[in-house]
Specification:
The structure is a single chain. The protein has 18 helices and 7 strands. The chain has helices at residues 51-63, 67-80, 85-97, 101-114, 119-131, 135-148, 153-161, 194-197, 210-224, 275-289, 298-305, 310-320, 324-327, 341-346, 348-358, 368-377, 380-383, 412-428; strands spanning 14-21, 24-29, 199-203, 228-230, 247-250, 266-272, 336-340. The protein has 437 residues and is α/β, with parallel strands linked by helices. The longest helix is centred in the C-terminal third of the chain and has 17 residues, at 412-428. The strands form 2 sheets. It has a 5-stranded parallel beta sheet. The chain is elongated. Helix 15 (348-358) crosses helix 16 (368-377). It folds into 2 domains: 9-194, Tetratricopeptide repeat domain (Serine Threonine Protein Phosphatase 5, Tetratricopeptide repeat, Alpha Horseshoe); 198-428, 3-Layer(aba) Sandwich (Rossmann fold). Strand 1 and strand 2 (24-29) form a beta hairpin.
Length: 437
């Protein structure tokens, strides 16, 4: 079975409190106001028949330190879904947030009893043992997790921690007000907040379906309690404090943008598209539908496109759209999942599952059901107001939505011109094997 998180890791926004010593800090939960307006203060717990929605509500309640209400919701949920390990995990989270480590330990052991291969539960048991200064026992839990999954990052990092001097004389508080939920700063528990572990990012390029992907990412962040930033018409990456956000959306990426993540832990995905389709999409978008707000350079280009033939306009677009940034990208960064527009269009569900699995969000934070709902919300049919993929409307920003449309517009002299300027790029990116196309 899939391993489950004791904390849906990115549901939590943590802030560092005073340093206990040079090797150990305590992390505390802080109240968050969510975009969806959830803020439970009533005595009667909220309840929803959907297990996913129920889990989201519980996580928010725990984050708001509303442990009693969360406890009631959890008990109601377990009555309805008695076999849900996810709800058991949330129950353990609730116990830890309230300072009841022993109760949390019992629940984790019950999870292991039901699902012996749940590496997340093993790892978190190790972290609890660490808090209780049972260091040998903690290491055994981490080692057992790695026997099941030798590449499990959290337990690898936690074992590496033991190569440092152990805080034998240092106090690890279990006071209810100061409890650090499963994690010392140095301990890489999967239950830590994603901001203390990995900043997540999407790197895209203009005319690589960035609007569609950003809508999906924003909605999933909203449903998951992640703090989302998009660089559209507002502050740029240069102007924000990246660590204030859980998920960064960079829709006009350049290789130098990665410099903003230097010395930070991050995971990201990067989407490219056949440069020929980028040109065609750019031509129709820049000619009519794309906003010129915050992009004054587009205005004279639009005037030119509307004053020449389609063939001339395609040639102008080849020199306008930024294709070089895709060619110059570092495709060997192990922190970045590389994919293509073509894969996302052909099989969006499975490709997004791969993406969010790499980011550590699926299936613990983003379930298959939730992902499918969001993909349906932003399907081409919905965004284009009823058209199927492939049905063209040149007046719409969502014009056609199919890969390979370039063959209808790049031909003759324009094809030769593109080969001369960008033919090697197509080969390097894997879109062509040679110049014979």
């Amino acid at each position: 079975m899939k391993s489950l998180m004791i904390y849906k890791e990115s549901h939590f926004t943590m802030k560092k409190k005073k340093q206990i010593d040079n090797t150990q800090k305590t992390i505390h939960s802080s109240f968050i106001t969510h975009d969806d307006g959830l803020n439970y203060n009533s005595q009667s717990p909220p309840f929803n028949d959907s297990e996913d929605e129920l889990a989201r509500q519980i996580s928010i309640l725990n984050k708001q330190n509303n442990f009693e209400t969360a406890k009631k919701v959890i008990e109601n949920g377990i009555q309805k879904y008695p076999n849900s390990l996810n709800l058991l995990n949330l129950k353990a989270e609730n116990k830890v947030q309230a300072g009841n480590l022993q109760e949390a330990k019992k629940i984790l052991l019950e999870i292991i009893k039901r699902s012996p291969d749940c590496v997340d539960a093993l790892n978190n048991l190790g972290v609890i043992e660490f808090y209780e200064k049972n260091y040998d026992s903690a290491k055994e839990f981490f080692k057992n997790a790695l026997i099941i999954n030798p590449t499990y990052e959290s337990s690898i990092a936690n074992l590496e921690y033991f190569n440092r001097p152990l805080p034998e004389e240092k106090k690890v508080t279990t006071d209810k007000k100061n409890i650090a939920p499963y994690k010392l700063t140095e301990m890489n528990s999967i239950s830590c907040n994603i901001r203390n572990k990995n900043i997540l990012a999407y790197f895209g390029h203009h005319k690589c379906s960035t609007t569609w992907i950003a809508k999906i990412a924003r909605e999933l962040c909203k449903r998951s309690g992640l703090v989302f930033f998009a660089d559209a018409g507002g502050p740029t990456l240069k102007e924000i404090n990246i660590t204030d956000y859980d998920f960064i959306c960079d829709r006009a990426s350049q290789p130098k943008d990665l410099d903003f993540l230097t010395n930070l832990n991050y995971r990201a995905f990067h989407v490219i598209r056949d440069p020929r389709d980028m040109v065609v999409s750019g031509y129709f978008s820049h000619k009519k539908t794309h906003s010129v707000n915050n992009w004054p350079r587009l205005i004279p280009h639009r005037i030119k496109l509307n004053s020449v033939s389609l063939e001339e306009g395609i040639r102008l677009e080849m020199n306008f759209i930024a294709l070089k940034t895709i060619h110059d990208w570092d495709y060997n960064n192990p922190r970045i999942f590389e994919t293509r527009f073509e894969k996302l269009i052909i099989d969006p569900l499975n490709e997004f599952i791969k993406i969010f699995t790499f980011l550590g969000l699926y299936p613990h934070l983003i379930s298959n059901h939730t992902l499918q709902i969001v993909l349906d919300m932003f399907s081409f049919k919905r965004l284009s107001k009823g058209r199927k993929i492939g049905q063209e409307d040149r007046s719409s920003h969502y014009r056609r939505g199919v890969p390979g449309d370039w063959v209808n517009y790049i031909y003759g002299d324009n094809k030769n011109y593109f080969k001369d300027r960008f033919g090697q790029m197509l080969i390097d990116l894997g879109y062509e094997k040679d110049f014979d196309w």
